[in-house]
């Protein structure tokens, strides 16, 4: 819920199951979650979340750890009023959800139907670093097929995501959006496929809407074909760094002879939709790593009903004048500035996020939640895994990390990186959603910020708070914005706030917290 908001795509069907299991099993006995070994028959017709049973316990674990520490003491103050499953863990709402062949047959798809369906590619906009071998591009994405699902079946599936609201009761545009997302989620990933790409210089208003961060430029050449060295994984994913050639003629600029980002368009062979812009990023400069939900767009994931509609049915809407702030950064920061959009939203919905970002914010590379959860560490901390990957790729860059307080992984990972890599983390900007939005009743933990230079981070309330900062010189705090950090659990919306936050939680606050947690568990988890 509060933490790994983006797995909401995993949560929504779970919520459905939750309602079902609440009806079926009225007893108060907590459900014991038994981690189920991973089964990965290919190809699967299923949302990724459901393919991998390990994600079930994954989510549960996160909630539990969120409630540990200060949060747990807040809860235990309530003693026996707490439903046992709050303390012992969230029931496994994912159980009995059909997987693999069961889903495939429930959709009535035959292998021959599928064989006749064109192969599609999702190419996630890549970034590249400069190495002794030249430019090294991280190609990543997914190969899949979209089954021909009948419209009535599609509406059934969409209704499973829309808890508490019928598809037919939504305005037409929202119905279409919900159907679009349902189609994107119910795809058949294609394992064991060889992938190749065609690269060519991207014109200035390239594939990705706005021209790109800082002074991104179109290289004079570099057109070439690249064969990805591995077949796709069973989940259809590909993800590896591949060196590209400096083809003769007016080629690519070397990373150590330009400060500009170079843009290359990449087309996946054999697919009309597997195109994206790659960003060749020089070794030094600023990279802005930005989350998307509740910082670049209005999601309100902390209000389950709103979060659901904003994610699943309504068109994406920018958060206030945040696009102006990014456009200003893109113009005013040095030419070497690179934008990277890193969200833990599942890969299947990447297109909708890209579509929104490129219409609204500067062009840049992307990371979303990969389907391949076989790396247990990555499963447990996908955001940190992705953050470490990009930090390792640019050991000399300065990173500006942007998100909001309603992600507990952000609240851990961003300050952790600042402690671990003090020379690389330039600024951390966190929108305090609970200070401005009474609907955010989930506490956030500021303990990770203890000991960091207080000019290196800022909790803010409106995009304008970010104006006039000297980011290039590491002055990331707007002195007029009171910070109020307790270095513990906080939540302004329910009054866990200021110096009193740690010790003097009012009982009404405890009550609201508990109600919020329980409501969210029932509704979302
Ligand atoms: C640029 O990088 C290449 C490859 O690492 C290296 O061979 C070359 O000497 C560098 N040039 C400069 C001017 O540093
Ligand atoms: C999808 O299936 C319907 C009937 O179930 C059929 O009329 C339609 O042509 C199919 N579309 C494609 C693209 O195969
Ligand atoms: C993929 O390419 C490799 C190397 O060329 C080849 O050995 C393998 O058979 C190919 N796989 C498929 C499924 O075509
Ligand atoms: C930034 O890049 C543009 C080209 O996009 C160039 O005209 C300008 O001189 C560069 N600025 C600096 C400070 O290098
Ligand atoms: C890339 O491959 C395509 C065929 O897939 C071919 O038409 C084109 O000439 C190749 N380009 C280069 C630069 O090799
Ligand atoms: C590519 O070749 C051109 C011309 O030979 C050279 O100026 C440039 O530095 C080279 N770029 C890379 C990326 O090696
Ligand atoms: C692109 O795919 C076609 C078949 O779909 C194949 O003939 C061609 O060789 C591929 N091109 C490259 C560069 O891999
Ligand atoms: C992909 O190609 C289509 C068709 O040319 C174009 O409309 C779209 O903007 C491109 N998108 C990206 C991300 O490259
Ligand atoms: C859904 O919408 C996105 C963004 O508008 C678009 O790129 C994508 O092709 C659509 N997907 C389907 C399955 O219609
Ligand atoms: C997982 O992370 C732990 C702690 O960071 C580390 O000790 C371990 O080696 C990692 N395992 C793998 C397989 O990367
Ligand atoms: C480029 O990125 C790769 C992959 O993250 C990393 O292993 C390598 O060290 C980086 N190279 C340089 C010169 O930073
Ligand atoms: C800090 O506390 C003050 C006073 O309660 C409040 O007005 C302000 O919004 C808080 N600042 C942030 C960033 O939440």
UniProtKB/TrEMBL annotation:
Transmembrane segments: none annotated. Residues 209-222 have a biased composition (Gly residues). Keywords: Signal. Residues 1-22 form the signal peptide. InterPro entries: APP1_cat (IPR019236), Mg2+_PAP (IPR052935). It comes from Mytilinidion resinicola. The keyword Signal applies. One of its GO terms (cellular component) is actin cortical patch. The keyword Disulfide bond does not apply. One of its GO terms (molecular function) is phosphatidate phosphatase activity. Residues 286-432 form the Phosphatidate phosphatase APP1 catalytic domain. It comes from the Eukaryota. Coiled coil: none annotated. Residues 200-222 are annotated as: Disordered. This is Phosphatidate phosphatase APP1 catalytic domain-containing protein.
């Amino acid at each position: 819920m509060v933490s790994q908001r983006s797995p909401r795509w995993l949560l929504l069907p779970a919520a459905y199951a939750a309602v079902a299991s609440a009806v079926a099993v009225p007893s108060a006995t907590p459900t014991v979650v038994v981690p189920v070994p991973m089964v990965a028959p290919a190809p699967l017709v299923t949302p990724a979340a459901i393919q991998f049973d390990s994600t079930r316990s994954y989510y549960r674990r996160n909630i539990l750890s969120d409630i540990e520490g200060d949060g747990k003491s807040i809860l235990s103050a309530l003693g026996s009023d707490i439903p046992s499953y709050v303390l012992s863990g969230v029931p496994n709402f994912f159980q009995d959800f059909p997987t693999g062949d069961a889903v495939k047959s429930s959709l009535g798809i035959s292998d021959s139907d599928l064989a006749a369906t064109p192969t599609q590619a999702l190419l996630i906009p890549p970034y590249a670093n400069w190495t002794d071998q030249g430019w090294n591009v991280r190609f990543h994405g997914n190969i899949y097929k979209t089954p021909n699902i009948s419209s009535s079946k599609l509406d059934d599936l969409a209704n499973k995501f829309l808890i508490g609201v019928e598809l037919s009761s939504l305005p037409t545009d929202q119905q279409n959006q919900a159907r679009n997302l349902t189609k994107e989620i119910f795809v058949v990933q294609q394992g064991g496929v060889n992938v190749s790409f065609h690269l060519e210089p991207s014109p200035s208003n390239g594939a990705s809407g706005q021209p790109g961060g800082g002074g991104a430029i179109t290289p004079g050449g570099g057109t070439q074909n690249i064969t990805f060295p591995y077949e796709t994984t069973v989940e259809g994913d590909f993800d590896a760094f591949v060196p590209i050639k400096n083809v003769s003629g007016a080629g690519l600029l070397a990373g150590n002879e330009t400060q500009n980002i170079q843009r290359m368009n990449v087309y996946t062979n054999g697919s009309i939709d597997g195109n994206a812009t790659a960003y060749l990023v020089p070794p030094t400069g600023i990279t802005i790593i930005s989350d998307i939900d509740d910082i670049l767009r209005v999601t309100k994931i902390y209000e389950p009903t709103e979060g659901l509609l904003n994610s699943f049915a309504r068109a994406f809407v920018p958060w206030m004048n945040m696009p102006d702030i990014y456009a200003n950064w893109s113009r005013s920061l040095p030419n070497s500035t690179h934008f990277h959009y890193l969200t833990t939203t599942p890969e299947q919905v990447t297109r909708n996020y890209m579509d929104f970002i490129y219409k609204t914010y500067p062009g840049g590379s992307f990371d979303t939640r990969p389907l391949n959860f076989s790396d247990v560490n990555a499963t447990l901390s996908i955001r940190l895994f992705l953050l470490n990957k990009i930090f390792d790729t640019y050991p000399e860059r300065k990173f500006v990390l942007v998100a909001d307080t309603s992600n507990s992984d952000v609240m851990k990972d961003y300050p952790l990186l600042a402690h671990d890599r003090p020379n690389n983390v330039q600024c951390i900007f966190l929108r305090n959603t609970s200070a401005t939005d009474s609907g955010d009743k989930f506490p956030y933990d500021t303990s990770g910020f203890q000991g960091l230079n207080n000019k290196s981070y800022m909790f803010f309330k409106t995009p304008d708070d970010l104006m006039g900062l000297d980011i290039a010189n590491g002055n990331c705090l707007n002195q007029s914005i009171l910070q109020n950090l307790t270095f513990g659990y906080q939540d302004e919306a329910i009054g866990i706030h200021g110096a009193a936050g740690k010790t003097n939680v009012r009982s009404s606050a405890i009550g609201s917290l508990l109600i919020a947690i329980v409501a969210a568990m029932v509704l979302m988890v």
